[in-house]
Amino acid sequence: METGEENTDHRVRMWAPVGQAVALLLGPYAEVVLHDPDTDRILAIWNPMGSRGPGDPSLLGELDALDPSARDVFGPYEKLLADGRRLSSVSAVLREPDGKAAAVLCVNLDRTPLEQAAAVLSAFGAPTTPRPEPLFEQDWNERVQHIVGAYVRECGRPVERLTRADRLAVLARLDEAKVFAMRRATPVVAAALRVSRSTLYGLLAEFRAPSTKDHTP
Fold this sequence. Notes:
Blueprint: E1 2-3, H1 10-26, E2 30-36, E3 41-46, E4 73-80, E5 86-95, E6 101-110, H2 112-125, H3 133-136, H4 140-155, H5 164-176, H6 185-193, H7 197-208
Antiparallel strand pairs: 1-3, 2-3, 2-6, 4-5, 5-6
Helix pairs in contact: 4-6, 5-7, 6-7
């Protein structure tokens, strides 16, 4: 911790445990700064990310352009360091018992490690090439899961909340893929659609009826 008036300023003595605790919890990726709103100077700083220290300008004017997200709380909002790192920052106005603003406590979290981790996880999870269909053309069970899953992703509803029209549309796609030509396809499709076999038989009868034969998938 760096403080300029640790032994004389009651605000530093009062809020130092909070600043230190947050810095220890989120360090080394978080900087915690206690500002003097009257002089617009830094009172204390924990885990500084740059060269600034106690007594340096606070530049609290940036808060004037923000709407509070809660009473006396601003953010999280984005800040940029000179080296290009992006920070998520939150600031809280600390008041005296009489309501006067005594200090402003800011926490600046370096998002770089989180963004790097997200990029790594995204690279692991995202397919880089189209699905090799020849590997799956004989696996009709896999085909059922793929067709139902693709429809669920398109419509944005979980499979349990598909409407009757949705299920008929899925049956049309499954029929086009010749799934129902396979033995024991019915229980697999029923399980994929999360319906009973009797419900599926009713849907199939409706789908195959002349009035719905031209149903568009």
